[in-house]
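User: Here's a structure from my thesis project, written as structure tokens. My advisor, Dr. K., wants to see whether a designed sequence matches the one we expressed. Can you design one independently, without my sequence as a hint?
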């Protein structure tokens, strides 16, 4: 793989590199790691890349990599830049014939996401989005329980993602906060585009259902243009109602992502801070706690690397997405068809941007309920990838 972004001052780039390396299926061979050529070279030296494979910018990288023999050039690019660059980098990569694995959100606007779906279809390349939390084994198990009907008809979904790192509005919070709070780089939202969209994706993934309508109330702390807190009421296509709460000013919280799904027969409860356990609650029998790597979890499709009782977490969840994408790339190279899995793709890219823009519009409106746009036609363009 090649990488765009993830230079010396970046956070998420290092996480992506560790995750990509975990299973030994992917080799980082090139990169354009920073807008600064010096920083990009510094990162390249740290990663022990060949000097000729560190590029001044991503345009040069795509051009020169495409000149290399097929067994030497990168096969896909990992995009780990601020949001405003996601579309352009993905567009140029797809047009150059490279597969794309992109950090979320997919683009800066829904219109860009629609264009990206068209470009991906024309290119025939693979595209995937790193919605990390869909890679947790017990999240996959939760989805399977819902699909098997163990919970019965879903009635209510409660999903929360609370952080506290933006709570001090007087502090200098550094580069990571600066671009997320800047509309030119982050888009129309900070909190909802950063973590609220993860919560929405997790709810849709586990329930295998789509948010159809929403009502929102977002807030921005003193002096901030973009939201850092918000609550969203949800209505799902299947009839369930839901509540989504996301905050980056919840003092003391780290990365408290939790989802509860309530059905007619049973309910489930999963928290990222205790990721190896899935609570299954019944109306007329005792609470069950399913654990990662046990036979019960394996029967539900959980992907694990270690024996029971050995914690697996964030890096492994990320690595599961990279492993699935590597398998798709390998299948495409050998057989002409991608492997089948639950990796987020163009559909999730479109839905994520639709969620973000609808939430922001709903919060600014006096109207109570706002439908998400119909993305059926655009989503169908991603079916083969």
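Assistant: Designed independently from the structure alone:
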């Amino acid at each position: 793989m090649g990488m765009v972004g993830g230079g010396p001052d970046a956070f998420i780039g290092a996480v992506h590199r560790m995750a990509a390396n975990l299973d030994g299926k992917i080799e980082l061979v090139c990169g354009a790691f920073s807008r600064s050529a010096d920083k990009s070279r510094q990162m390249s030296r740290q990663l022990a890349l060949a000097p000729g494979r560190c590029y001044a910018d991503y345009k040069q990288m795509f051009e020169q990599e495409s000149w290399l023999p097929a067994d030497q050039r990168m096969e896909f690019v990992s995009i780990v830049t601020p949001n405003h660059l996601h579309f352009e980098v993905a567009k140029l990569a797809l047009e150059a014939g490279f597969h794309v694995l992109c950090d979320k959100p997919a683009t800066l606007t829904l219109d860009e996401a629609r264009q990206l779906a068209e470009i991906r279809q024309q290119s025939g390349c693979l595209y995937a989005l790193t919605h990390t939390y869909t890679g947790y084994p017990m999240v996959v198990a939760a989805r399977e329980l819902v699909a098997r009907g163990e919970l019965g008809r879903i009635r209510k979904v409660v999903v929360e993602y609370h952080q506290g790192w933006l709570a001090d509005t007087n502090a200098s919070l550094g580069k990571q906060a600066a671009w997320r709070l800047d509309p030119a780089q982050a888009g129309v939202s900070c909190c909802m585009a950063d973590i609220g969209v993860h919560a929405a994706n997790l709810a849709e993934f586990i329930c295998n259902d789509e948010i159809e309508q929403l009502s929102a109330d977002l807030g921005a702390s003193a002096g901030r243009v973009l939201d850092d807190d918000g609550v969203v009421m949800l209505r799902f296509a299947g009839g369930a109602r839901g509540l989504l709460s996301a905050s980056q000013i919840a003092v003391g919280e780290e990365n408290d992502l939790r989802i509860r799904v309530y059905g007619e027969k049973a309910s489930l409860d999963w928290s990222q801070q205790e990721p190896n356990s899935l609570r299954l609650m019944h109306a007329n029998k005792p609470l069950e706690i399913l654990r990662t790597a046990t036979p019960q979890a394996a029967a539900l499709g959980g992907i694990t690397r270690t024996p029971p009782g050995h914690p697996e977490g964030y890096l492994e969840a990320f690595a599961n997405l990279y492993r699935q994408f590597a398998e798709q790339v390998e299948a495409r190279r050998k057989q002409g068809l991608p492997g089948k899995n639950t990796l987020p793709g163009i559909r999730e890219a479109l839905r994520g941007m639709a969620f973000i823009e609808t939430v922001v519009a709903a919060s600014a409106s006096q109207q109570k309920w706002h439908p998400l746009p119909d993305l059926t036609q655009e989503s169908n363009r991603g079916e083969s990838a």
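When you compare it with your expressed construct, this may help: The CA atoms of residues 166 and 249 lie 5 Å apart.
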